[in-house]
Amino acid sequence: MLKMRKYTIERNSYIKAVVELERSAQITKKDVDYTVPASKRGIDMLLAKYYNHEYETEVSTKPFEELTAPNMKKQLSCARVALVTDGGLVPKDNPDNLNSTNAQKFCMYSLGGRDCLKAEDYEISHQGYNSEYAEEVPDRLLPVDAMRRAEKEGIIGKLFDIFYTTAGVMTPVEESVKLGEKIAVSLHSCEVDGVILTSTCGTSTRCGALIGKEIERLGIPVVQITNLTKIAESVGARRVLRGKDICYVLGDPKMSREEERGYRWEMVKKALELLEKKI
Hints:
Layout: H1 2-24, E1 27-29, H2 38-50, E2 59-61, E3 80-85, E4 89-91, E5 107-110, E6 122-124, H3 132-136, H4 144-152, E7 158-165, H5 173-189, E8 194-198, H6 202-217, E9 222-226, H7 229-235, E10 240-242, H8 257-276
Parallel strand pairs: 3-7, 3-8, 8-9, 9-10
Antiparallel strand pairs: 1-2, 4-6, 5-7
Helix pairs in contact: 4-8, 5-6, 6-7
């Protein structure tokens, strides 16, 4: 009974998220002749596109706002860099009850000076991807181990000891922007100089990109690491790095742990180089 009740709650949350997403998804619809089956309409459009004939899509998206990407205001070796994720990483037992879809809020958690993230301390609240890999090695989602190394080697001045997290899956555009505005104000007030933002599935990557744009609106450059780079770029993210997989953006369970740490280190170095690059 308890399991069924949990499923019902999650299912209702999912349906609510879909409705809100459709209401705010920045789309316009043309009049459609629904007497023609959807399969035929779709094939007709595909053939028209293939043969370079004119056609009109049934759902057209409005372009996202373009922003001028800010550059670092100080040398990376003196900069305070923060970690942000839309992948739903939370401490064990999800103490602030972050929703696993359309979270509508973000949470901030102290890293407590940790050199890496341990599986027994964290879990994932996110229904957009298979979270077992990130729960097995949380650094696959939030690269604390590599960022601590960058800090110790003087590549960055300081890793901000608080990380920001939300579950971006099924989060509407307007809600993503609101989250971004709040996170941006917090980062700015904490005198953060740059951000590494990690993303997972499709709508979560879109949410992350919108959060990143609001952070950049306040003059803080952001590098978004996602496997779905085209989605991030379509939203307007300017500094985007392709991650390994939506389920382990900064890792690979097929590698040995030593090889994986090496891979993550190389990825973080690329991200930091991109963060410092002038646009």
